[in-house]
Amino acid sequence: MINKIDSVEINKIKSESRTVINLRLLGISFTLFTFIAAISPFLLKENILLSLQLTIAIPLLITSIFARKKLAYTEKIDLWNKYGFITSTIALAFLLNVVGIFLSVLVGKNVSLIFYASNILIALLYSLFEIHEDKSLIKSRICKDSLFIIILFFLGILPALGIY
Fold first, then answer.
1. Total domains in the fold of the chain
2. In angstroms, rounded to a whole number, what is the distance separating the alpha carbons of residues 25 and 135?
3. d(Cα 147, Cα 99) in Å, to the nearest integer?
4. How far is Cα 147 from Cα 94, in angstroms, rounded to an integer?
5. Residue 104 structural domain
6. What is the pLDDT of residues 11-69, one digit of tens each?
7. Any residues with CB less than 8 A from the CB of 155 and at least 6 apart, and which?
């Protein structure tokens, strides 16, 4: 059993590692924005889903960073952990959708679909490994993966295929 001191230290370590990941994703967001604006500015104006997802990903990542930092010094970690996870997951899905839509427009729909399929497959494999390690996580992984895949499907794959 983990005592309270060990739990606090574990939360600090988790907080730092998750914050670093989100800071890198935030950097990627700004890089993507700059890259798309420089290479193909018409995409930002013409493709509203691409623009909105890229724009909304930034405050979601910032929010997730603050929530993850809160984990390091609060005793009530469940709420902050869930909030940080949800905002981070939505932001990551939005960033992947931006890349997928960008690939669809500039390279082709097949490449975009391969990109989406590989991201979904990798996420599901991660979940399978995590469930194999700890069977009690199955419900949590189904919820997390469902959120991720629904966002990719409705706000990424369908628009990349030109369905809306």
1. 1
2. 30
3. 18
4. 12
5. 4-160
6. 778 778 888 888 898 899 889 889 888 988 888 899 999 999 999 999 999 999 999 88
7. 49, 53, 93, 94, 97
